[in-house]
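Title: Prediction job returns without error message
Component: structure pipeline
Severity: low
Priority: P3
Assignee: unassigned

Description:
Job completed but the reporter wants confirmation the result is attached to the right record. Sequence as submitted:
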Amino acid sequence: MGFFSRLFQPRADGLAAPEDWTSLPASEASALVLYDEEASRLLAAFDIEAAIVMHERWLPWLAQALAGARDEQLRPETVVNDTCSELGRWLHGSGRVALGHFPAFDMLMRRHQYFHHQAAVLLTHLAQGDQLRAEQAFKSCQHASRQVVLLLKELQRGLDHGKRSPQPMAAGER
C-alpha cells in the first residue's frame, strides 16, 4: 500500500517511537487498522474530518496576515504553541492515549509542531517588516500543513477500514 500506510504500524514491543522518526518501521504490514469498537470509540472521541477542515483554515488566515491584515489572535508567542489549536490539544491529550503507540503518531505530532513553529516565524518576520522571509516561512507552513493533512487522512482511512474489517484470526485459531 501507500507510503503513509506503512508508517502507522504499532511497535511489536509496545514502546514509544524512536527519535529517528524519519525511517520506516521494520514491519511489513501495510495499514493502520483499529478494529470495531476501538475504531468506533476513537472516531466518536474525535472527528478527523473536522480536524482537517479546522487545520486547513490556518493557511488562509496566515495568507491574510502576509497580505497585511492584522489579527490580534495571530501573535507569534501564542501560535508557536501547537496546543493553541484544537488538533494540537487532541494530539497532546486523548490522541496520544489512543494512538501514541503508532510510530507515525510522533511524525504527525512533529509535523504539526513544525507548522506552528513556522507560523510563528512568519508572524515574527512580518512584525519586523521582512516580507521576503515571511513569504519563505509561509511556504514552509504550506508544506507542513499538507503533510499534517496527509497523515490525518491516512489515519482516517485506517480507522474507516477498521470499522468494516473483522479482526484477523491469529495463527492456529481455526
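Comment from assignee: result matches the submitted record. Confidence is low (pLDDT under 50) at residues 1-5, 20-31.
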